[in-house]
């Protein structure tokens, strides 16, 4: 059972700014959400319906719609002391 991955324009804009080495790793991680959007490295965020995937110093914030089999990437942010 595979999910379709959709990336919102704001997340795509941030993705384009990521250094090439990290970009490939993040791309593989996002594509991995097609098969398992709630894998072992995914954490549900408190107080909302979003999930977080850690990829090195980057965080991919996304939502999952099970009825539509859709994963929507909302944001890609560098992890800093002020990220959360």
Task: Provide a short characterization of the protein structure.
The protein is an alpha+beta fold and 84 residues long.
Provide an overview of this structure.
- The chain has 84 residues and is of the alpha+beta class.
- It has a single domain (4-78), classed as 2-Layer Sandwich (YaeB-like fold).
- Helix content is 25%, strand content 36%.
- It has helices at residues 9-16, 20-32, and strands at residues 4-7, 42-44, 50-55, 58-65, 70-78.
- Strands 1-5-4-3-2 form a five-stranded mixed sheet.
- Strand 3 (50-55) and strand 4 (58-65) form a beta hairpin.
Name the CATH class. Answer: Alpha Beta
Supply the number of helical segments: 2
Q: How many structural domains?
A: 1
CATH architectural arrangement: 2-Layer Sandwich
Weakly predicted, low-confidence segments:
none
N to C succession of SSEs: EHHEEEE
**CATH fold-level assignment:** YaeB-like fold
Q: What structural class results from the helix and strand content?
A: alpha+beta
How many β strands by DSSP? 5
Q: What proportion of the residues form beta strands (DSSP E)? A: 35-45%
**Rg, Å, rounded:** 12 Å
Ends apart, CA distance between termini = 32 Å
Q: In CATH, what is the homologous superfamily?
A: RelE-like
* Shape designation: globular
The overall pLDDT average reads: 93
Helix percentage: 25-40%
């Amino acid at each position: 059972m595979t999910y379709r991955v959709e990336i919102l324009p704001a997340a795509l804009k941030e993705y384009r700014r990521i250094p090439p080495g990290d970009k490939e790793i993040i791309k593989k991680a996002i594509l991995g959400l097609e098969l398992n959007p709630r894998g072992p490295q995914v954490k549900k965020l408190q107080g909302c319906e979003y999930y977080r995937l850690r990829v090195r110093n980057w965080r991919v914030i996304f939502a999952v719609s099970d009825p539509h089999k859709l994963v929507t990437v909302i944001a890609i942010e560098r992890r800093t002391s002020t990220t959360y």
